[in-house]
Specification:
The structure is a homodimer.
Chain A: E1 13-17, H1 26-37, E2 42-46, E3 52-53, E4 56-57, E5 71-74, H2 81-91, E6 95-98, H3 108-124, E7 127-129, E8 136-138, E9 143-144, E10 153-160, H4 163-175, E11 181-186, H5 195-204, E12 210-215, H6 221-231, E13 238-241, H7 246-256, H8 263-272, E14 276-278, H9 284-293, E15 301-306, H10 309-321, E16 325-326, H11 331-340, E17 351-352, H12 363-372, E18 379-384, H13 389-392, H14 397-415, E19 419-423, H15 431-439, E20 443-444, H16 447-469, H17 480-491, H18 499-508, E21 517-519, H19 522-532, E22 537-542, E23 555-559, H20 562-579, E24 587-592, E25 598-607, E26 611-618, H21 621-624, E27 629-633, H22 638-647, H23 665-681, E28 685-695, E29 700-702, E30 705-709
Parallel strand pairs in A: 1-2, 1-5, 5-6, 6-7, 10-11, 10-12, 12-13, 13-14, 15-16, 15-17, 15-18, 18-19, 19-20
Antiparallel strand pairs in A: 3-4, 8-9, 8-11, 21-24, 22-23, 22-24, 25-26, 25-28, 26-27, 28-29, 28-30
């Protein structure tokens, strides 16, 4: 995987095409920052007339530069870019950063200009950052050509599709003292390099500990997922996805030409790939900080330590609303706490010291250590006033708070379990909290944000374990029978499989399908009764020309006995003919009525960005009105499939309500896995729908199946 | 309403019972703060032995104080409080603040101690704040005896059930420069005065512009709602309710009860009463600030002005996720914007200046004015870098930003429409943003929080209008027939009405009920066929001793014709007798099968805190698994009832899905109003359930009704 690294992001030589003497121009600022930071390589300003910029010799053309150029920053307008790119290509430049806007985000003309430069890049083997990018930096290489001042080197790698968001991230990091950056890339329009490439790079970059992404739209979504699944096994990756509503999508399109699909789908499959999804833009840095400083949580068992009932209550609410568990602490732990806290203290979780720290905030560190040494506790969250005791109670408590902060940091390291602190005094930036931050304990102003970070640590701990131990299953090869079936459909010039063909294909992939018969004659009807029993049976028209079977009178249910079958058969055929003259009628599909069960839907679409995605949900109004469904990109791991069942809001129904037995989860998981395999083996399938599937206490019945092939 | 004011919160004389010379004690701090602030009234330290505190003469007993005492601060331990209260009573003191803990929050003994002081208070006419309170202040009266330093006078009134939360609020307000307070009350255990009393006081207090409440639990919830409904017609009130995951799950006897008592219920009825509910604790002050500084929004039509695509996109997402509308701006507005912005600017909403402010941030004010003058725009949200141009672009832009801030403030006043600004530079506190705050424009760091405040302004604008023009309907008197019906049930020693009695009661309140017959004999069966037609009919056992009718074989459906009726009747009676020996059987209720329709549930519970609450939802799994229901306290206004239908997540089903016609909303609203009336007129009804009601395209059918009376 070492080839994923983008070597031009650690350049030894940089050309600035369109160097400038105007301090407000990027062609000036880039050179200035490189000089200020002490960039150790060579800088080559390119300008047709000028001979020098900020004391550095300029060249009139790229060709005239006397050595190889690793990286070129192009500061000139859009129309000049194709010509410059060719010059760069002739010179063998590896990477080009194109700042200019005026490409695909502006419409037709811009789109074709963007296609042109992408083509040139391919032809000459140049990698493009942008166009319409804010630039890049690699602070560990002292290479900052984004013109962002006051950033320090550290472990966060930033990939952002918005310059403003990059500034937001930088400002917030600076407020959280000590958070620094490795590499920044403004992705812009992704004419060539995209999120997948930058993430692969950061996965390999030893200076980047946590990649942080602001995404308006992916271009190679499928590739991105593959990369993310690998990278997140070793490093947490935090992502915020905007363009989640129609209004946001319209805004994103006019900003970077980005296209986005359903937000819920995107969140599900990003999580599946192991990414940590920030639901609000302001969670991006706090989550990244938590994942940078702390180990992932071993489980969702949390202890809260508070010095006030209000904060304890709010923390308990927030934790349980996020599905986290206020764990029962051990009797021995309670006893130890009782030994150092006043009798009014609450010793069950959340622990409230009830004034027990007022005279000596050092008691916090004692309590923290006692709680972290409890084997039931995997995360400790401290909420309340810490850091403000000096201000609130007495000047003399200041040094004790500072010392306590150091002790907390030491305890964090010793126990190796995540510890976070919320203090209402955070915005006042008291010394004790600055010390605490420096020891590696994240400090929050808001309880909600602290809890979001706890949830992020729990989630990453879980997904990392899941994805390390549950690789997605690799598909079977396409069996010959399946190939023949698809070919027959193609030969017949159909893109939709007839229902019995779809059922047949499912059977080839070992999916249990109830017996059925396609009746084309009286004889078939007789055989149906013999084979399927006397009822109740269902009959459905089989015709490539009739899409809406019910509308065409093509569905009859609960038929019992030979006579009912006969008359239904003739009615169906006649009604179909009347409904659509000349309709090609293959016959009538006869199958036993399904046993009742929980109505499920399993569908597959090919998302234009992410490729094949499987959807699972409850049928009927649940899916139609509540949109209560879960998504996973294909291929799935078994853990993914299991996760789909647990994730839907109405999952209680799967466990059995109103006296119904629980459904056969294992069978449904197996079904999902087989559908994942089938779709993997058949890239020509563009849509698949099992709707409904009736899930029973044992097994399931596929009641209707629809499979559509893509255009050849 | 003037009597609602608590005059002791503007005291002319204060006694400090348990005065102290120890600076860490409240009996010291209170006197010190009063002196520091220049409290103009008299202070009377009370101490058995000492004669002077901080230069003020002390008295050994309350009785020996030479003038009336308006307010007493009791700093002594819990056990001493009853004795002191009596002394205060003899002296004619109006209000007592009891700091000590050790009352109802600690268990049995504390509970009875609390009851004792409450009794003394009633006997002597003293009002109690607390016990277990952090204290009170009234900054406009220079009376701060909560010991909270560094608070300034202003328009926010704080009522908090947590000292930590009060500190949080004070700290956050100080960070938002210029936000000050009127009165603070730590409510503590509410032995006497509670949230309802403090809110009523603040409603009348001219110094309080926006009351802000942190609530763990209401005591007189019904009273509180009544007060809130009045106060919020004139002043916005912001509330955060904690303890929401544990709330009210007990005492849920019936199906409806199980879903009630929840946080969701509380939020619904607080909103109904006109309160602004903060969903997260950190939203409390931002919402209060917005409502303090800005007028309520006329509608949900929002314009966004951005200087970067990323922020524009995120703002668009957040706004539409909150149900707010990025309004179409007028052609004339676009033209005006085009005249001052570069061609790359996005002139549709969100407006992105695309660099058009880089050289002159003053253009922001021009754009803001253009947007606010558009009649389609009711709120303006500015997002991005404003305030950071000096830092980001050039020192020389600083004065321009400062001047622009002043202009924005002036524009805000001139147009009288809410304007809010988000800047990523907020945490750096640049001068321009401080100036902007001082002009009355709220400034936010986070887009999400800014949008939450926009939503709060829209919501308050809406609820204020709604509650001003739609008073809840006042109940009819109890008709004689209804009284007789209830009496008959009582006389029969039953708390549950038989089903036909429940239907009869509904009919008395003018609720349309399908014809039915209670058959007690063969002759009744014959009459049923004549009256109800030949079917299909439904039959249900009527017996006070059989609760689970289906289990007892007591329900038969879809019966057609006399024979079917006869045999079903005998089966039901026999099965019932076999099911429960000696069961008193009243007969069998016969009614036509209901036309199919959308299955609804309407229920009423008497919440122990809030009194009668009506619940509306879709029947079946929607209510059971998704808990997709809405709540309103009884009595409802018609607007409340309409709101219930629109609020449920599955409300699309009411509009007709899968080809079904929309339901008759007006009829269901009417039904809800009549149930509200009925329950108001019958305070003895403890539970009521219409489950299911089938809603049709025209009208509805009540399929099952259950009414329970309280214990007499």
């Amino acid at each position: 995987m070492n080839s994923s690294r983008l070597s031009f992001l650690s350049p030894e030589t940089i050309a600035v095409v369109g160097a400038s003497k105007d301090p407000t121009k990027r062609g000036y600022q880039a050179i200035r920052q490189l000089l200020l930071d002490g960039f150790s390589g060579n800088i080559y300003p390119i300008h047709p007339r000028e001979t020098e910029f900020q004391g550095i010799r300029a060249y009139s053309t790229v060709a005239s530069v006397p050595e190889n150029i690793d990286l070129a920053l192009i500061c000139t307008p859009a129309v000049t870019v194709p010509g410059i790119m060719k010059e760069l290509g002739d010179k063998g430049v590896k990477g080009a950063i194109i700042l200019a806007g005026g490409f695909s985000e502006t419409g037709e003309a811009g789109l074709s200009l963007e296609a042109e430069i992408a083509e040139i890049a391919t032809e000459y083997g140049i990698r493009i950052v942008g166009p319409n990018t804010s630039g890049v930096f690699n602070l560990h290489a002292r290479m900052n050509i984004v013109g962002m001042p006051n950033v320090q080197a550290g472990g966060l790698g930033i990939v952002s599709q918005s310059g403003n968001m990059a500034l937001t991230i930088a400002t917030e990091a600076s407020m959280r003292g000590g958070l620094g950056f490795s590499t920044y890339v403004g992705v812009g329009n992704q004419a060539d390099l995209g999120f997948n490439d930058y993430l692969a790079h950061m996965g390999q970059d030893p200076d980047t500990k946590v990649p942080v992404l602001y995404v308006e739209g992916f271009k190679k979504g499928r590739k991105f997922l593959d990369v993310a699944r690998e990278v997140t096994k070793e490093k947490p990756v935090v992502v915020y996805k905007s363009g989640r509503t129609l209004a946001g999508q319209a805004a994103a399109k006019s900003h970077t030409g980005a296209l986005s699909g359903s937000y819920d789908m995107t969140v599900d499959i990003l999580d599946q790939a192991g990414l940590t999804v920030a639901r609000q833009s302001n969670e991006l840095i706090p989550l990244a900080e938590a994942l940078l400083l702390l180990p992932p949580a071993k489980s969702n068992r949390i202890a809260v330590l508070a010095d006030g009932g209000g904060h304890a209550t709010i923390a308990a609410d927030c934790l349980s609303e996020q599905g986290l568990k206020l764990v029962d602490i051990e009797e021995a732990t309670r006893k130890k706490l009782a030994g150092i806290l006043p009798s009014a203290a609450s010793l069950s979780n959340p622990v409230d010291v009830a004034g027990g720290t007022d005279a000596n905030p050092g008691v916090f560190a004692d309590c923290a250590e006692i709680l972290l040494s409890d084997p039931n506790v995997d995360v400790l969250l401290i909420v309340g006033l810490f850091g403000g005791y000096k201000l609130r109670f007495a000047e003399s408590l200041g040094p004790i708070e500072n010392e306590t902060a150091l002790r907390l940091g030491e305890i964090l390291k010793r126990y190796g379990k995540p510890m976070l602190l919320q203090s209402l005094y955070t915005p006042l930036r008291p010394e004790a909290l600055e010390i605490l931050r420096n020891t590696g304990v994240p400090v929050h102003e808001s309880i909600e944000m602290a809890v979001t970070c706890v949830a992020g640590l729990v989630q990453y701990g879980y997904t990392q374990k899941r994805n390390r131990s549950h690789p997605p299953t690799i598909a079977n090869e396409q069996p010959e029978a399946a190939r023949d079936l698809v070919k027959a459909c193609r030969d017949d010039n159909r893109s939709a499989l007839l229902e019995f063909e779809a059922l047949e294909l499912l059977k080839i992939y070992d999916i249990p399908i109830a017996d059925y018969i396609v009746a084309r004659s009286q004889g078939d009807l007789n055989r149906a009764v013999v084979k399927l029993g006397s009822g109740p049976l269902a009959m459905k028209i089989v015709s490539q020309d009739i899409l809406h079977k019910t509308e065409a009178g093509g569905v009859k249910l609960k038929l019992s006995g030979r006579d009912a079958l006969n008359s239904a058969y003739h009615d169906i055929i006649n009604d179909a003919k009347a409904y659509k003259t000349g309709a090609r009628i293959e016959g009538v599909l006869i199958a036993p009525m399904a046993k009742s069960g929980v109505e499920l839907i399993i569908g597959v679409i090919r998302d234009p960005i992410f490729g094949p995605v499987l959807m699972f949900g409850l049928g009927g109004t649940m899916v139609e009105v509540m949109k209560d469904v879960s998504f996973r990109a294909i291929p799935l791991s078994r853990a993914d499939a299991e996760g789909m069942l647990g994730q839907i809001k109405s999952s209680k129904i799967l466990e059995g309500v109103r006296g119904a037995p629980p459904i056969d989860r294992a069978a449904i998981v197996e079904l999902i896995m087989k559908i994942s395999n089938l779709v993997q083996a058949h890239p020509e399938i563009s849509e698949l729908d099992l709707n409904p599937v009736f899930a029973h206490a044992v097994g399931f019945t596929v009641v209707d199946a629809r499979i559509i092939l893509d255009d050849e």
